[in-house]
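Subject: Predicted fold for Disulfide bond formation protein DsbB, 487 residues

User T.R. writes:
Posting the sequence so we have a shared reference for the thread.
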Amino acid sequence: MQARDAIFNKLASFASVVIMALPVGIACFIFGFLMKDNPCAFCWQERTAMILVALTALYIVRFGLKPKYIGALVWLGIYGAWMASVHTSINLGSDIGQGFSVKIMGAHTYTWALLVFVVVLVVVAALMMFLGNRFPGKPTQTPGNPALVKVVASVFLFVISGNIVQAFTQTGPPPFVGQDSPGRVSFNPKFMSWELDHWPTYGPDARGAYAISDPSYDQVNRTSPMFDGAALPVSAQQALPAAISSRITAIDYEPVSQRYAVVTSDMWVYILDNSLSRILTQAKIDGMYMIHISPLAGVAFTSENELVVLGDNKAFAKLVLQPDQTWEVNYRRFNESTDGIGESERGQFATVRAKLSYAAALAYDKDAEQLVTVTAANERGDNLVASRFALEDMTLSAEANFNLGDKQDRWMANLPMLTGYAIDGPHSFLLSGSAGEVLMMNTETGAIDHGIRLATPANPQGLVKVGNNLMTVAFDNGVNTLYRFEL
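User M.O. replies:
I've generated the C-alpha coordinates; pasting them so everyone works from the same file.
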Protein backbone atom coordinates (compact mmCIF):
# COMPACT_ATOMS: atom_id res chain seq x y z
CA MET A 1 0.00 0.00 0.00
CA GLN A 2 2.82 2.43 0.89
CA ALA A 3 4.53 1.72 -2.42
CA ARG A 4 1.30 2.49 -4.27
CA ASP A 5 0.85 5.73 -2.27
CA ALA A 6 4.41 6.77 -3.13
CA ILE A 7 3.76 6.19 -6.83
CA PHE A 8 0.53 8.10 -6.60
CA ASN A 9 2.22 11.04 -4.85
CA LYS A 10 4.84 11.19 -7.56
CA LEU A 11 2.16 11.17 -10.27
CA ALA A 12 0.15 13.92 -8.51
CA SER A 13 3.32 15.99 -8.12
CA PHE A 14 4.20 15.43 -11.76
CA ALA A 15 0.67 16.48 -12.85
CA SER A 16 0.89 19.64 -10.78
CA VAL A 17 4.26 20.71 -12.14
CA VAL A 18 3.27 19.87 -15.73
CA ILE A 19 0.13 22.04 -15.59
CA MET A 20 1.92 24.95 -13.91
CA ALA A 21 5.10 24.82 -15.98
CA LEU A 22 3.59 24.15 -19.40
CA PRO A 23 0.20 25.78 -20.13
CA VAL A 24 0.22 28.30 -17.27
CA GLY A 25 3.94 29.03 -17.18
CA ILE A 26 4.38 29.26 -20.95
CA ALA A 27 1.27 31.47 -21.26
CA CYS A 28 2.56 33.86 -18.58
CA PHE A 29 6.30 34.10 -19.20
CA ILE A 30 6.78 33.26 -22.89
CA PHE A 31 3.53 34.40 -24.50
CA GLY A 32 2.95 37.18 -21.97
CA PHE A 33 6.22 38.76 -20.90
CA LEU A 34 8.31 37.85 -23.97
CA MET A 35 5.78 37.88 -26.85
CA LYS A 36 3.58 40.57 -25.22
CA ASP A 37 0.40 38.50 -25.68
CA ASN A 38 -2.18 39.63 -23.13
CA PRO A 39 -4.91 37.22 -21.92
CA CYS A 40 -8.55 38.12 -22.44
CA ALA A 41 -11.35 37.55 -19.91
CA PHE A 42 -11.88 33.95 -21.12
CA CYS A 43 -8.13 33.25 -20.95
CA TRP A 44 -8.02 34.37 -17.31
CA GLN A 45 -10.93 32.06 -16.45
CA GLU A 46 -9.15 29.11 -18.06
CA ARG A 47 -5.79 29.98 -16.50
CA THR A 48 -7.34 30.35 -13.04
CA ALA A 49 -8.98 26.94 -13.32
CA MET A 50 -5.64 25.37 -14.32
CA ILE A 51 -3.88 26.95 -11.31
CA LEU A 52 -6.57 25.59 -8.99
CA VAL A 53 -6.21 22.12 -10.54
CA ALA A 54 -2.47 22.22 -9.83
CA LEU A 55 -3.12 23.48 -6.28
CA THR A 56 -5.60 20.65 -5.67
CA ALA A 57 -2.97 18.12 -6.78
CA LEU A 58 -0.58 19.59 -4.21
CA TYR A 59 -3.24 19.26 -1.53
CA ILE A 60 -3.63 15.60 -2.45
CA VAL A 61 0.14 15.06 -2.11
CA ARG A 62 0.21 16.75 1.28
CA PHE A 63 -3.05 15.61 2.88
CA GLY A 64 -3.92 12.45 0.99
CA LEU A 65 -6.62 11.59 -1.51
CA LYS A 66 -10.06 12.63 -0.24
CA PRO A 67 -13.47 12.76 -1.88
CA LYS A 68 -13.56 16.56 -1.61
CA TYR A 69 -10.36 16.83 -3.64
CA ILE A 70 -11.74 14.52 -6.32
CA GLY A 71 -14.93 16.62 -6.35
CA ALA A 72 -12.84 19.80 -6.71
CA LEU A 73 -10.93 18.34 -9.67
CA VAL A 74 -14.16 17.29 -11.39
CA TRP A 75 -15.71 20.70 -10.80
CA LEU A 76 -12.63 22.56 -12.03
CA GLY A 77 -12.32 20.27 -15.05
CA ILE A 78 -15.95 20.84 -16.04
CA TYR A 79 -15.75 24.60 -15.44
CA GLY A 80 -12.49 24.95 -17.37
CA ALA A 81 -13.73 22.79 -20.24
CA TRP A 82 -16.92 24.86 -20.42
CA MET A 83 -15.03 28.17 -20.55
CA ALA A 84 -12.59 26.79 -23.13
CA SER A 85 -15.50 25.43 -25.20
CA VAL A 86 -17.22 28.83 -25.22
CA HIS A 87 -13.91 30.50 -26.08
CA THR A 88 -13.22 28.04 -28.88
CA SER A 89 -16.75 28.23 -30.29
CA ILE A 90 -16.37 31.94 -31.06
CA ASN A 91 -14.11 31.03 -33.99
CA LEU A 92 -15.14 27.45 -34.55
CA GLY A 93 -16.83 28.26 -37.87
CA SER A 94 -14.25 30.78 -39.05
CA ASP A 95 -12.16 30.43 -42.18
CA ILE A 96 -8.88 28.54 -42.14
CA GLY A 97 -6.23 30.12 -39.93
CA GLN A 98 -8.58 32.62 -38.29
CA GLY A 99 -8.80 32.99 -34.52
CA PHE A 100 -7.27 34.77 -31.54
CA SER A 101 -3.70 34.88 -30.25
CA VAL A 102 -0.84 32.62 -31.36
CA LYS A 103 -1.05 29.09 -32.74
CA ILE A 104 0.71 25.98 -31.47
CA MET A 105 0.93 23.13 -34.00
CA GLY A 106 -1.81 24.83 -36.01
CA ALA A 107 -4.26 25.25 -33.13
CA HIS A 108 -4.83 28.47 -31.20
CA THR A 109 -3.95 28.52 -27.51
CA TYR A 110 -7.52 28.39 -26.17
CA THR A 111 -8.09 25.18 -28.13
CA TRP A 112 -5.24 23.59 -26.16
CA ALA A 113 -6.91 24.76 -22.94
CA LEU A 114 -9.91 22.62 -23.85
CA LEU A 115 -7.61 19.62 -24.31
CA VAL A 116 -5.98 20.23 -20.90
CA PHE A 117 -9.31 20.15 -19.06
CA VAL A 118 -10.53 17.09 -20.94
CA VAL A 119 -7.30 15.33 -19.90
CA VAL A 120 -7.92 16.37 -16.27
CA LEU A 121 -11.37 14.76 -16.35
CA VAL A 122 -10.04 11.61 -18.02
CA VAL A 123 -7.24 11.31 -15.43
CA VAL A 124 -9.70 11.74 -12.54
CA ALA A 125 -11.93 9.02 -14.04
CA ALA A 126 -8.94 6.68 -14.41
CA LEU A 127 -7.86 7.48 -10.83
CA MET A 128 -11.25 6.52 -9.44
CA MET A 129 -11.12 3.23 -11.32
CA PHE A 130 -7.56 2.62 -10.05
CA LEU A 131 -8.58 3.15 -6.40
CA GLY A 132 -11.23 0.47 -6.49
CA ASN A 133 -13.86 0.71 -3.75
CA ARG A 134 -12.08 2.77 -1.11
CA PHE A 135 -9.82 5.77 -0.66
CA PRO A 136 -6.33 5.25 0.83
CA GLY A 137 -5.76 6.16 4.44
CA LYS A 138 -4.34 9.45 5.70
CA PRO A 139 -0.65 9.78 4.79
CA THR A 140 2.14 10.51 7.24
CA GLN A 141 2.80 14.17 8.05
CA THR A 142 5.94 14.16 5.90
CA PRO A 143 5.35 13.23 2.25
CA GLY A 144 7.29 10.24 1.05
CA ASN A 145 9.37 12.31 -1.37
CA PRO A 146 9.90 15.72 0.29
CA ALA A 147 12.50 16.89 -2.23
CA LEU A 148 10.08 16.38 -5.14
CA VAL A 149 7.28 18.11 -3.26
CA LYS A 150 9.51 21.12 -2.58
CA VAL A 151 10.46 21.37 -6.24
CA VAL A 152 6.81 21.22 -7.30
CA ALA A 153 5.77 23.77 -4.67
CA SER A 154 8.59 26.09 -5.74
CA VAL A 155 7.53 25.88 -9.40
CA PHE A 156 3.95 26.54 -8.36
CA LEU A 157 4.85 29.64 -6.33
CA PHE A 158 7.16 30.99 -9.04
CA VAL A 159 4.58 30.63 -11.82
CA ILE A 160 1.72 31.99 -9.74
CA SER A 161 3.88 34.98 -8.78
CA GLY A 162 4.35 35.80 -12.46
CA ASN A 163 0.61 35.52 -13.01
CA ILE A 164 -0.11 37.81 -10.06
CA VAL A 165 2.16 40.46 -11.56
CA GLN A 166 0.57 40.11 -15.00
CA ALA A 167 -2.99 40.06 -13.67
CA PHE A 168 -2.53 43.09 -11.39
CA THR A 169 -0.72 45.26 -13.93
CA GLN A 170 -2.63 44.31 -17.09
CA THR A 171 -6.12 43.63 -15.72
CA GLY A 172 -6.17 45.48 -12.41
CA PRO A 173 -7.26 44.63 -8.87
CA PRO A 174 -10.89 43.78 -8.07
CA PRO A 175 -13.45 44.81 -9.14
CA PHE A 176 -11.71 45.17 -12.53
CA VAL A 177 -12.04 42.16 -14.82
CA GLY A 178 -10.44 40.94 -18.04
CA GLN A 179 -10.89 42.58 -21.42
CA ASP A 180 -12.44 41.10 -24.54
CA SER A 181 -9.70 42.45 -26.84
CA PRO A 182 -6.64 43.28 -24.69
CA GLY A 183 -3.71 45.19 -26.08
CA ARG A 184 -0.09 44.09 -25.85
CA VAL A 185 1.48 43.59 -22.43
CA SER A 186 2.91 46.89 -21.27
CA PHE A 187 4.13 48.19 -17.92
CA ASN A 188 3.64 51.77 -19.04
CA PRO A 189 0.55 53.08 -17.17
CA LYS A 190 -0.56 54.95 -20.30
CA PHE A 191 -1.16 51.67 -22.10
CA MET A 192 -2.58 49.58 -19.25
CA SER A 193 -6.33 48.99 -19.51
CA TRP A 194 -8.38 48.28 -16.38
CA GLU A 195 -12.01 47.62 -17.38
CA LEU A 196 -15.37 46.94 -15.72
CA ASP A 197 -17.26 46.23 -18.96
CA HIS A 198 -17.42 42.47 -18.77
CA TRP A 199 -19.11 41.57 -15.54
CA PRO A 200 -21.66 38.85 -16.44
CA THR A 201 -25.25 39.84 -17.10
CA TYR A 202 -28.17 37.53 -16.54
CA GLY A 203 -31.52 37.24 -18.25
CA PRO A 204 -34.40 34.79 -18.54
CA ASP A 205 -33.09 33.43 -21.85
CA ALA A 206 -30.52 30.61 -21.86
CA ARG A 207 -28.72 32.34 -24.76
CA GLY A 208 -27.65 35.18 -22.44
CA ALA A 209 -26.61 38.48 -23.95
CA TYR A 210 -27.19 37.16 -27.49
CA ALA A 211 -30.86 36.37 -26.85
CA ILE A 212 -33.24 37.45 -29.60
CA SER A 213 -36.97 36.93 -29.13
CA ASP A 214 -38.64 34.57 -31.57
CA PRO A 215 -40.68 36.39 -34.22
CA SER A 216 -44.42 36.57 -33.60
CA TYR A 217 -46.75 35.99 -36.52
CA ASP A 218 -49.93 36.76 -34.63
CA GLN A 219 -48.84 39.97 -32.90
CA VAL A 220 -46.99 42.58 -34.96
CA ASN A 221 -46.34 46.00 -33.49
CA ARG A 222 -47.64 48.74 -35.78
CA THR A 223 -45.13 51.06 -37.42
CA SER A 224 -45.62 54.19 -39.49
CA PRO A 225 -45.41 54.03 -43.31
CA MET A 226 -42.15 55.29 -44.78
CA PHE A 227 -43.82 57.03 -47.71
CA ASP A 228 -46.87 59.26 -47.98
CA GLY A 229 -49.75 58.85 -50.36
CA ALA A 230 -53.25 57.47 -50.65
CA ALA A 231 -53.76 53.80 -49.90
CA LEU A 232 -54.19 51.48 -52.87
CA PRO A 233 -57.72 50.00 -52.64
CA VAL A 234 -58.47 46.28 -52.68
CA SER A 235 -59.51 45.21 -56.17
CA ALA A 236 -60.71 41.75 -55.10
CA GLN A 237 -60.62 39.40 -52.14
CA GLN A 238 -61.05 35.67 -51.83
CA ALA A 239 -61.36 33.23 -48.97
CA LEU A 240 -58.80 30.44 -49.31
CA PRO A 241 -59.71 26.77 -48.73
CA ALA A 242 -61.06 26.13 -45.24
CA ALA A 243 -58.67 23.16 -44.87
CA ILE A 244 -55.90 25.73 -44.40
CA SER A 245 -56.89 26.44 -40.82
CA SER A 246 -53.74 28.18 -39.52
CA ARG A 247 -52.12 31.48 -40.45
CA ILE A 248 -50.52 31.66 -43.88
CA THR A 249 -47.09 33.30 -43.59
CA ALA A 250 -45.88 33.26 -47.21
CA ILE A 251 -47.14 32.76 -50.76
CA ASP A 252 -45.57 32.30 -54.20
CA TYR A 253 -46.70 31.56 -57.77
CA GLU A 254 -45.19 29.39 -60.51
CA PRO A 255 -46.35 30.71 -63.95
CA VAL A 256 -45.49 27.66 -66.10
CA SER A 257 -47.47 25.13 -64.10
CA GLN A 258 -49.83 27.86 -62.89
CA ARG A 259 -49.70 26.73 -59.28
CA TYR A 260 -49.51 28.61 -56.00
CA ALA A 261 -47.61 27.57 -52.90
CA VAL A 262 -48.41 28.76 -49.40
CA VAL A 263 -46.84 27.92 -46.05
CA THR A 264 -48.30 28.29 -42.58
CA SER A 265 -47.04 29.04 -39.10
CA ASP A 266 -47.64 25.42 -38.04
CA MET A 267 -45.30 23.95 -40.70
CA TRP A 268 -47.81 23.08 -43.45
CA VAL A 269 -47.01 23.53 -47.15
CA TYR A 270 -49.97 23.67 -49.53
CA ILE A 271 -49.87 23.61 -53.33
CA LEU A 272 -52.98 25.25 -54.82
CA ASP A 273 -54.38 25.41 -58.33
CA ASN A 274 -54.49 28.57 -60.43
CA SER A 275 -57.87 29.58 -58.98
CA LEU A 276 -56.62 29.27 -55.38
CA SER A 277 -59.71 27.26 -54.58
CA ARG A 278 -58.39 23.69 -54.63
CA ILE A 279 -55.50 22.06 -52.77
CA LEU A 280 -53.47 19.89 -55.15
CA THR A 281 -51.07 18.41 -52.60
CA GLN A 282 -49.87 19.22 -49.11
CA ALA A 283 -47.24 18.26 -46.54
CA LYS A 284 -46.50 19.06 -42.92
CA ILE A 285 -42.74 19.55 -42.51
CA ASP A 286 -41.22 17.69 -39.57
CA GLY A 287 -39.20 20.55 -38.16
CA MET A 288 -37.36 18.27 -35.72
CA TYR A 289 -35.98 15.85 -38.30
CA MET A 290 -32.20 16.13 -38.69
CA ILE A 291 -31.91 19.94 -38.97
CA HIS A 292 -34.32 21.96 -36.86
CA ILE A 293 -36.61 24.12 -38.99
CA SER A 294 -38.59 26.60 -36.91
CA PRO A 295 -41.98 28.03 -38.04
CA LEU A 296 -42.11 28.55 -41.78
CA ALA A 297 -41.68 32.17 -42.88
CA GLY A 298 -41.01 31.92 -46.60
CA VAL A 299 -41.63 29.95 -49.78
CA ALA A 300 -40.25 30.37 -53.31
CA PHE A 301 -40.56 28.36 -56.52
CA THR A 302 -37.18 27.82 -58.17
CA SER A 303 -38.51 25.88 -61.17
CA GLU A 304 -41.74 24.38 -62.45
CA ASN A 305 -41.58 21.45 -60.02
CA GLU A 306 -39.18 22.63 -57.31
CA LEU A 307 -39.54 25.04 -54.44
CA VAL A 308 -37.77 26.05 -51.24
CA VAL A 309 -39.44 26.66 -47.89
CA LEU A 310 -37.70 28.65 -45.19
CA GLY A 311 -37.96 28.59 -41.40
CA ASP A 312 -37.50 31.82 -39.50
CA ASN A 313 -34.20 30.39 -38.14
CA LYS A 314 -32.86 30.39 -41.73
CA ALA A 315 -33.05 26.61 -42.04
CA PHE A 316 -34.56 25.47 -45.32
CA ALA A 317 -36.00 22.46 -47.11
CA LYS A 318 -36.01 21.87 -50.87
CA LEU A 319 -39.25 20.30 -52.05
CA VAL A 320 -40.11 18.56 -55.31
CA LEU A 321 -43.53 18.09 -56.92
CA GLN A 322 -43.49 14.69 -58.60
CA PRO A 323 -46.07 11.88 -58.91
CA ASP A 324 -43.74 9.26 -57.39
CA GLN A 325 -43.44 11.15 -54.09
CA THR A 326 -45.54 9.54 -51.35
CA TRP A 327 -45.78 9.95 -47.59
CA GLU A 328 -44.11 6.56 -47.12
CA VAL A 329 -41.09 7.78 -49.11
CA ASN A 330 -40.95 10.99 -47.05
CA TYR A 331 -41.90 9.50 -43.69
CA ARG A 332 -38.85 10.92 -41.89
CA ARG A 333 -39.24 14.38 -43.39
CA PHE A 334 -43.00 14.92 -43.16
CA ASN A 335 -45.37 14.39 -40.25
CA GLU A 336 -48.18 14.12 -42.79
CA SER A 337 -48.49 14.50 -46.54
CA THR A 338 -50.45 13.56 -49.61
CA ASP A 339 -48.94 12.07 -52.74
CA GLY A 340 -47.09 14.27 -55.21
CA ILE A 341 -44.82 16.22 -52.86
CA GLY A 342 -41.45 15.26 -51.39
CA GLU A 343 -38.30 16.67 -49.86
CA SER A 344 -34.95 16.43 -51.63
CA GLU A 345 -32.61 18.39 -49.35
CA ARG A 346 -32.46 20.14 -45.98
CA GLY A 347 -29.89 22.66 -44.80
CA GLN A 348 -29.14 25.96 -43.09
CA PHE A 349 -28.26 29.33 -44.57
CA ALA A 350 -25.12 30.79 -42.98
CA THR A 351 -24.99 34.58 -42.84
CA VAL A 352 -22.65 37.29 -41.57
CA ARG A 353 -24.54 40.54 -41.06
CA ALA A 354 -27.78 38.65 -40.39
CA LYS A 355 -26.28 36.14 -37.94
CA LEU A 356 -28.12 37.54 -34.90
CA SER A 357 -31.45 38.06 -36.67
CA TYR A 358 -34.29 35.77 -37.63
CA ALA A 359 -35.55 35.60 -41.21
CA ALA A 360 -38.91 37.15 -42.05
CA ALA A 361 -39.37 36.51 -45.78
CA LEU A 362 -37.93 34.70 -48.81
CA ALA A 363 -37.92 35.38 -52.56
CA TYR A 364 -36.23 33.92 -55.64
CA ASP A 365 -34.32 36.10 -58.08
CA LYS A 366 -34.67 34.13 -61.31
CA ASP A 367 -32.26 36.28 -63.31
CA ALA A 368 -29.44 35.90 -60.77
CA GLU A 369 -30.44 32.35 -59.78
CA GLN A 370 -30.29 33.36 -56.14
CA LEU A 371 -32.57 32.99 -53.14
CA VAL A 372 -32.93 36.18 -51.12
CA THR A 373 -33.90 36.44 -47.44
CA VAL A 374 -34.71 39.50 -45.35
CA THR A 375 -34.39 39.68 -41.60
CA ALA A 376 -37.04 40.33 -38.97
CA ALA A 377 -36.98 43.42 -36.77
CA ASN A 378 -35.85 42.64 -33.22
CA GLU A 379 -35.45 44.27 -29.83
CA ARG A 380 -31.76 45.01 -30.47
CA GLY A 381 -32.74 47.54 -33.11
CA ASP A 382 -30.40 46.00 -35.69
CA ASN A 383 -30.87 47.22 -39.23
CA LEU A 384 -32.67 44.83 -41.55
CA VAL A 385 -30.45 42.79 -43.85
CA ALA A 386 -30.98 41.25 -47.29
CA SER A 387 -28.90 38.10 -47.85
CA ARG A 388 -28.44 36.36 -51.20
CA PHE A 389 -27.65 32.67 -51.62
CA ALA A 390 -26.65 30.92 -54.85
CA LEU A 391 -29.18 28.26 -55.75
CA GLU A 392 -26.34 26.07 -57.00
CA ASP A 393 -24.83 25.45 -53.55
CA MET A 394 -27.09 27.45 -51.17
CA THR A 395 -24.06 29.45 -50.03
CA LEU A 396 -23.99 33.15 -49.20
CA SER A 397 -23.21 35.24 -52.29
CA ALA A 398 -23.94 38.79 -51.11
CA GLU A 399 -25.35 40.60 -48.12
CA ALA A 400 -26.30 44.22 -47.46
CA ASN A 401 -28.03 46.37 -44.87
CA PHE A 402 -31.12 48.25 -46.01
CA ASN A 403 -30.39 51.85 -46.93
CA LEU A 404 -33.15 54.39 -47.51
CA GLY A 405 -30.90 57.35 -48.17
CA ASP A 406 -32.24 60.54 -46.62
CA LYS A 407 -34.91 58.50 -44.82
CA GLN A 408 -32.35 56.28 -43.07
CA ASP A 409 -32.69 57.89 -39.64
CA ARG A 410 -36.47 57.54 -39.80
CA TRP A 411 -36.06 53.95 -40.99
CA MET A 412 -33.81 52.99 -38.08
CA ALA A 413 -36.17 54.60 -35.57
CA ASN A 414 -39.19 52.89 -37.14
CA LEU A 415 -37.97 49.45 -38.31
CA PRO A 416 -40.91 47.58 -39.85
CA MET A 417 -41.66 43.89 -39.81
CA LEU A 418 -41.28 42.75 -43.42
CA THR A 419 -43.69 39.87 -43.91
CA GLY A 420 -43.59 39.36 -47.68
CA TYR A 421 -41.13 39.56 -50.56
CA ALA A 422 -41.56 39.29 -54.31
CA ILE A 423 -39.01 39.80 -57.11
CA ASP A 424 -40.07 40.65 -60.66
CA GLY A 425 -36.93 41.18 -62.73
CA PRO A 426 -35.41 44.59 -61.92
CA HIS A 427 -38.19 45.39 -59.45
CA SER A 428 -38.53 44.01 -55.93
CA PHE A 429 -41.54 44.38 -53.66
CA LEU A 430 -41.23 44.22 -49.88
CA LEU A 431 -44.37 44.00 -47.78
CA SER A 432 -44.18 45.93 -44.53
CA GLY A 433 -46.83 44.01 -42.63
CA SER A 434 -46.50 46.32 -39.63
CA ALA A 435 -47.21 49.45 -41.70
CA GLY A 436 -49.50 48.10 -44.43
CA GLU A 437 -47.09 49.29 -47.09
CA VAL A 438 -45.20 47.80 -50.04
CA LEU A 439 -41.67 49.15 -50.42
CA MET A 440 -40.40 49.34 -54.00
CA MET A 441 -36.74 48.34 -54.31
CA ASN A 442 -34.31 48.20 -57.21
CA THR A 443 -33.32 44.54 -57.38
CA GLU A 444 -29.77 45.24 -58.56
CA THR A 445 -28.82 48.20 -56.37
CA GLY A 446 -31.05 47.60 -53.35
CA ALA A 447 -32.21 51.23 -53.38
CA ILE A 448 -35.70 51.88 -51.98
CA ASP A 449 -37.08 55.11 -53.38
CA HIS A 450 -40.85 54.89 -52.96
CA GLY A 451 -43.65 52.85 -51.46
CA ILE A 452 -47.29 51.94 -51.98
CA ARG A 453 -49.69 51.96 -49.08
CA LEU A 454 -52.26 49.16 -49.06
CA ALA A 455 -55.78 49.24 -47.70
CA THR A 456 -55.41 45.89 -45.95
CA PRO A 457 -56.47 44.49 -42.60
CA ALA A 458 -53.87 44.46 -39.84
CA ASN A 459 -50.88 42.12 -40.10
CA PRO A 460 -50.90 40.93 -43.75
CA GLN A 461 -48.51 38.04 -44.46
CA GLY A 462 -46.85 36.98 -47.69
CA LEU A 463 -46.59 38.83 -51.00
CA VAL A 464 -46.68 37.66 -54.60
CA LYS A 465 -46.89 39.55 -57.88
CA VAL A 466 -48.89 37.92 -60.67
CA GLY A 467 -49.24 39.97 -63.81
CA ASN A 468 -50.22 43.46 -62.77
CA ASN A 469 -51.54 42.36 -59.39
CA LEU A 470 -50.01 42.27 -55.94
CA MET A 471 -51.54 39.71 -53.60
CA THR A 472 -51.22 39.26 -49.85
CA VAL A 473 -53.02 37.20 -47.21
CA ALA A 474 -54.59 38.12 -43.88
CA PHE A 475 -55.83 35.73 -41.19
CA ASP A 476 -58.97 36.61 -39.28
CA ASN A 477 -61.29 34.41 -37.20
CA GLY A 478 -59.64 31.25 -38.47
CA VAL A 479 -60.02 32.16 -42.16
CA ASN A 480 -57.20 33.05 -44.56
CA THR A 481 -58.31 35.73 -47.01
CA LEU A 482 -56.37 36.71 -50.12
CA TYR A 483 -56.38 40.41 -51.07
CA ARG A 484 -55.59 41.60 -54.61
CA PHE A 485 -54.31 45.06 -55.51
CA GLU A 486 -54.07 46.22 -59.10
CA LEU A 487 -50.99 48.29 -59.85
